[in-house]
């Protein structure tokens, strides 16, 4: 089974693309579909996916990619559109408009699961007055989307998430996401943009205590000038059958990361 994780960045053109700086839309999404297909992935874990948002051409990106790739899919939002530029938390997993994660798969799905991951909430900006809206940042709720896949050797549970940009919050969310995924039938694989580098993931609670182990190493951020790994594939009961592959696509500021796995 080949698994690919990719922070799609709503299919915005990469800095190295011929249309760098241009808008996302049907053309960039079609191009992304072709490039994802070329990776040969059986399971695709996507983050920063738009659903019917103006900035990306009003497309349901997960559904469009799944159709192009001939895969089953599910989308789960953590942000439901915006109001006057302010992100609104998603109250349901698939709002009419939203932003979140998606899981696409060629394998049959037994069950789907969604779990909210509490964000960091408000935080003061240094050097800004507390009475000003510009004096605060908001760290939103995140989401874990998981599928129990049917394979010839039994069920495998796969999850995708996109964690907080605050390292302390991301570590907490990683522990919560792993704990939830590990309650599903195993083996288990958790992937996505964890907003933690390789050293931070290695020292995290779930890796340090052996619940999950990193499967794939590669510099994924930025796509144009890779200098660190923010995108990870962690597993229990699965091993990599070869080295990971970094995919520099013509969309996103992240590179994709794929690896072939089988049961340990």
Automatic annotation (TrEMBL):
Example GO BP: GPI anchor biosynthetic process
Q: Which residues form the Endonuclease/exonuclease/phosphatase domain?
A: 5-254
Supply the alphabetized keyword list.
Endonuclease, Exonuclease, Hydrolase, Nuclease
Pfam families, per this entry? Exo_endo_phos
Does the record carry Protein transport as a key word?
A: no
The domain of life is Bacteria
Q: Which InterPro entries match?
A: Endo/exonu/phosph_ase_sf, Endo/exonuclease/phosphatase, GPI-anchor_lipid_remodeler
Q: Which GO terms describe its molecular function?
A: endonuclease activity; exonuclease activity
GO cellular component terms, alphabetically, are: membrane
| Protein name per Swiss-Prot or TrEMBL | Endonuclease/exonuclease/phosphatase family metal-dependent hydrolase
Q: Which organism is it from?
A: Georgenia soli
Q: What is the lineage of its organism?
A: Bacteria, Bacillati, Actinomycetota, Actinomycetes, Micrococcales
């Amino acid at each position: 089974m080949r698994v690919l994780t990719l922070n799609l960045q709503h299919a915005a053109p990469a800095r190295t693309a011929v249309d760098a700086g241009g808008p996302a839309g049907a053309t960039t999404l079609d191009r992304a579909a072709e490039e994802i297909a070329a990776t040969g992935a059986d399971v695709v874990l996507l983050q920063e996916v738009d659903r019917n948002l103006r900035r990306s051409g009003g497309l349901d990106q997960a559904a469009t990619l799944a159709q192009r790739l001939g895969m089953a899919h599910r989308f789960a939002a953590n942000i439901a559109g915006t109001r006057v530029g302010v992100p609104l938390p998603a109250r349901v997993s698939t709002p009419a408009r939203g932003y979140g994660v998606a899981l696409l798969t060629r394998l049959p799905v037994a069950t789907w699961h969604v779990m909210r991951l509490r964000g960091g909430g408000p935080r003061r900006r240094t050097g800004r007055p507390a009475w000003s809206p510009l004096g605060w940042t908001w760290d939103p709720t995140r989401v874990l989307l998981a599928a129990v896949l049917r394979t010839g050797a039994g069920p495998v549970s796969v999850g995708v998430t996109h964690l907080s940009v605050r390292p302390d919050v991301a570590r907490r969310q990683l522990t919560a996401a792993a704990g939830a995924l590990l309650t599903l039938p195993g083996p288990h694989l958790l992937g996505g943009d964890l907003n933690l580098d390789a050293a931070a993931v290695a020292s995290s609670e779930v890796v340090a205590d052996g619940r999950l182990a990193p499967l794939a190493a590669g510099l994924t951020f930025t796509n144009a000038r890779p200098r660190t790994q923010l995108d990870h594939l962690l597993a229990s009961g699965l091993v990599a059958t070869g080295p990971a592959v970094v995919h520099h696509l013509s969309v996103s500021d992240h590179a994709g990361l794929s690896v072939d796995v089988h049961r340990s």
